[in-house]
Amino acid sequence: MAQDQGKLSFIMFSGTADKFIPLGVVSQAASAMGMQVNVFVTGFALRGFTKQAQALPFPAEFASMAPAVAQGMERAHVASWDKMLRDAKELGAKIYACSMMSSVMGLKKQDFNDLVDDVVGAATFLEQAEGGQTLFI
Amino acid sequence: MAQDQGKLSFIMFSGTADKFIPLGVVSQAASAMGMQVNVFVTGFALRGFTKQAQALPFPAEFASMAPAVAQGMERAHVASWDKMLRDAKELGAKIYACSMMSSVMGLKKQDFNDLVDDVVGAATFLEQAEGGQTLFI
Amino acid sequence: MAQDQGKLSFIMFSGTADKFIPLGVVSQAASAMGMQVNVFVTGFALRGFTKQAQALPFPAEFASMAPAVAQGMERAHVASWDKMLRDAKELGAKIYACSMMSSVMGLKKQDFNDLVDDVVGAATFLEQAEGGQTLFI
Fold first, then answer.
1. Do A11 and C26 touch (CB under 8 A)?
2. CA angle, C42 as apex, C53 and C47 as ends, to 5°?
3. Dihedral of the alpha carbons of C104, C107, C108, C110, in degrees to the nearest 10
4. Which residues contact B9 (CB under 8 A, 6 or more apart)?
């Protein structure tokens, strides 16, 4: 696999609960395929990575579907998004929190859980993402 | 056109009505330019591709603008998103439904309309998308 | 830096206030790194680029956090998104308004402020974006 085809990066910005599912699924699938996966967590999505658990809201337009989706996830035996991210990390994926938005939201490195490898700036992330594909979620 | 520059893939996740417009416009434009277009439909966006039509909600923040946008689309003679996707398909675009989220939402292959070419997993899609650009909508 | 690694494009579609922050931060950081940055503004995001200022709504799910985010931005001395975009433009970034959606929303070239370099179609933008990475925001 050529280096410039084997890298997938994510800018994880959205903080609604639904968006964490594709983050988990795609990062796990890409890691299992041997791709180098980097996740840059910023904006409201930072709330999904703190030690003190914070409720992630369902998107306003689909709030009435939340119970059906939760039941469907269980029925289809889909792992939780953080379990999928942990699997991706065991295969080499790296997760970084955005230093600027952490500061804006009053979050320090010790406030994040063990999913987060480091707190870095946007320039550092862009360097790592260079030459691959990047998804903005 | 080099192969690694001529491929555009979409992970179509969002299920609000507005996001289907850029899916249609960009997939049609890219197909017309000779790019290889792949669309991976997942999450709430699957509701836009079922035989039994489901109402796609407008984003909560812009609900009051829905009539103006609809009138503007008509006035500017913009085709509907599914018409644009059909044009893209005639030019070679492929549309796949995500097997995992289909299962979560209780949708089977026969529940999808003829826009959907197949139901596949995330890994299959990532292989197809490799070496090009991918947009997460 | 190889040409195909040095280009970052944005399709800026979302019109909620929060999404303009990553547009500003990432376009500024990429421009400062010497990357060629192109922004294609479409959909509700066009409302952020008009001469007559229009209020950009906060996402419905996080509306209660708007004051805390505004205070955090000030406390962390984060520049406004349009200041960051102006910095990016001074480093060479280009910003284009989507001709089709401008027409749908009744906006003409003279309605946009000086951040916008030109009004172009999706095909023109895709040509410019080719060979780099593109983020859909």
1. yes
2. 10
3. -170
4. B37, B38, B39, B40, B125, B128, B129, B132, B133, B134, B135
**Global confidence as pTM:** 0.95
Report chain A residues whose CB lies below 8 A from the CB of C73.
Answer: 104
**Which residues in A lie closer than 8 A to residue C72 (C-beta atoms)?**
103-106
User: Which pLDDT does position B4 carry in this prediction?
Assistant: 43
Q: What is the pLDDT of residue B53?
A: 85
Residue-wise pLDDT tens digits, B7-26: 999 999 999 999 999 999 99
Residues of chain B short of pLDDT 50, as ranges, are 1-4
**Out of A5, A19, A26, closest to residue B130 by CB:** A5
B52-69 in b/e form (b: 16+ CB < 10 A) is: eeeebbbbbbbeebeeeb
State chain A's mean pLDDT as an integer.
95
CA distance C116 to C108: 12
Average pLDDT over residues C44-61: 95
Conformational region of residue A16, where left means phi above 0, alpha means psi within -120 to 50, and beta covers everything else? beta
Q: What is the ipTM of this complex?
A: 0.94
Look at C60 and B60 and tell me if their CB atoms are within 8 Å.
yes
The C-alpha of A78 sits at a distance from chain C's nearest C-alpha, in angstroms, of 25
Q: Which of A57, A58, A136 sits opposite C137 (nearest CB)?
A: A136
| Chain A hits for B16, Cβ within 8 Å | 61
